[in-house]
């Protein structure tokens, strides 16, 4: 009889464990369905995810996090801007992002509005129809969030800088962590992009690190940006792909075409004209009237005096005076004393 009770207890235990445990929680979140990122190339943006932007990262638990320790300027000290991590998510109305980095010596508020030159973090989005654009346009922006905002209490008053950063309408909180600092922010997606499974946007994330004063660390997620030029060329972004929780199909990134930004044409060389100096107060009617001409010419030069109508009222040749120690210029004199004012 005792053995029968043991058998019944074991069967009941197996039945309970098969119906309970972690399975219901996983099916509710669907986080296990999120595809792994392709480092430096593609990150999947899970949706719908319930995130409250309040500086408390507990609602990010279970979401994938990417760690970056590559870039154009590396830190020799892992505890001082040696890496950064980020996570992304969205719902139908907002894009969410959190970033953190180890930073034992936070440098903030030392360079005016040049936050790129001290401890700051950046993310970039290209939500336009041209993910291979070589120049910034509509629905493309860079958002720089700096350490000077640590402890902010109003999420709408972040000191945002970056290319077209005002278009992002980003809000969030900046906070200290045990190893450094971080932020949690959101960007409204209304009029920017329609969230749907497989929708692709350009995405980039970076950090600027200052060990003592000026920036001496630059870490970059996208492997296509090797020279810190994402602020000029959006085609160097990686890809962010919206992924609907629970889906089994994994959308792929579209083909890339890296584009060099349009070169700014160089200004054509031009000759600075000879400079004529006159008495700006005026001349007495019958007094001597001289003007000085800056010229390296060793020969006399022709000159003309014209009235307001462009008519020549007097002409002559300059008097070569040579080097003038007071001005450091080579001088010619123009004597137009014959003209009676």
Characterise the protein shown here:
The protein is mainly β and 341 residues long. The chain folds into two domains: 28-244, Immunoglobulin-like (Sandwich), CATH 2.60.40; 275-335, Immunoglobulin-like. It contains two helices and 18 strands. It has helices at 2-19, 23-29, and strands at residues 42-47, 66-68, 71-73, 84-90, 94-102, 120-126, 140-146, 171-176, 180-188, 200-210, 215-220, 238-244, 275-277, 290-294, 302-306, 312-317, 319-324, 329-335. The strands form four sheets. Strands 1, 3, 6, 7, 10, 11 and 12 form a seven-stranded mixed beta sheet that branches. The protein has a five-stranded antiparallel beta sheet with strand order 2-4-5-9-8, with no helix packed on it. Residues 1-29 and 267-273 have low confidence and may be disordered.
Structure classification? mainly beta
CATH topology title of the largest domain:
Immunoglobulin-like
**In the CATH hierarchy, what is the architecture of the largest domain at level 2?**
Sandwich
Portion in beta strands: 25-35%
Number of strands: 18
> What average pLDDT do the residues reach?
85
Rg over CA atoms: 34 Å
Helix and strand string, N-terminal first?
A: HHEEEEEEEEEEEEEEEEEE
Low-confidence stretches at least 5 residues in length (pLDDT < 50)?
1-29, 267-273
């Amino acid at each position: 009889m005792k053995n029968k009770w043991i058998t019944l207890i074991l069967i009941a235990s197996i039945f309970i464990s098969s119906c309970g445990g972690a399975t219901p929680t996983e099916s509710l979140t669907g986080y296990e369905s999120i595809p792994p990122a392709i480092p430096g190339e593609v990150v999947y943006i899970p949706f719908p995810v319930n995130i409250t932007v309040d500086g408390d990262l507990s609602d990010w638990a279970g979401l994938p996090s990417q760690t970056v320790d590559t870039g154009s300027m590396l830190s020799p000290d892992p505890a001082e801007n040696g890496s950064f991590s980020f996570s992304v998510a969205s719902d139908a109305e907002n894009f969410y992002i959190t970033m953190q980095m180890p930073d034992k010596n936070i440098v903030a508020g030392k360079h005016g509005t040049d936050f790129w030159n001290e401890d700051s973090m950046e993310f970039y989005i290209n939500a336009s129809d041209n993910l291979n654009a070589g120049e910034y346009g509509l629905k493309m922006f860079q958002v720089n969030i700096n350490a000077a905002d640590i402890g902010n209490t109003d999420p709408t008053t972040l000191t945002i800088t970056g290319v077209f950063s005002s278009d992002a309408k980003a809000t969030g909180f900046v906070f200290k962590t045990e190893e450094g600092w971080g932020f949690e922010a959101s960007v409204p997606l209304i009029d920017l992009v329609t969230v749907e499974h497989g929708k692709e946007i350009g995405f980039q994330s970076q950090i600027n690190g200052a060990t003592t004063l000026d920036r001496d660390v630059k870490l970059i997620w996208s492997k296509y940006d090797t020279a810190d030029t994402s602020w000029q060329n959006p085609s160097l972004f990686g890809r962010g792909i919206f992924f609907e929780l629970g889906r089994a199909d994994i959308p792929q990134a579209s083909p890339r075409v890296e584009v060099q930004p349009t070169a700014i044409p160089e200004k054509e060389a031009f000759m600075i004209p000879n400079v004529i100096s006159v008495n700006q107060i005026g001349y007495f009617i019958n007094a001597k009237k001289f003007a000085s001409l800056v010229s390296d010419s060793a020969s006399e030069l022709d000159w003309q005096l014209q009235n307001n109508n462009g008519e020549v009222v007097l002409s002559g040749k300059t008097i070569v005076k040579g080097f003038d120690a007071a001005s450091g210029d080579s001088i010619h004199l123009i004597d137009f004393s014959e003209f009676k004012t």
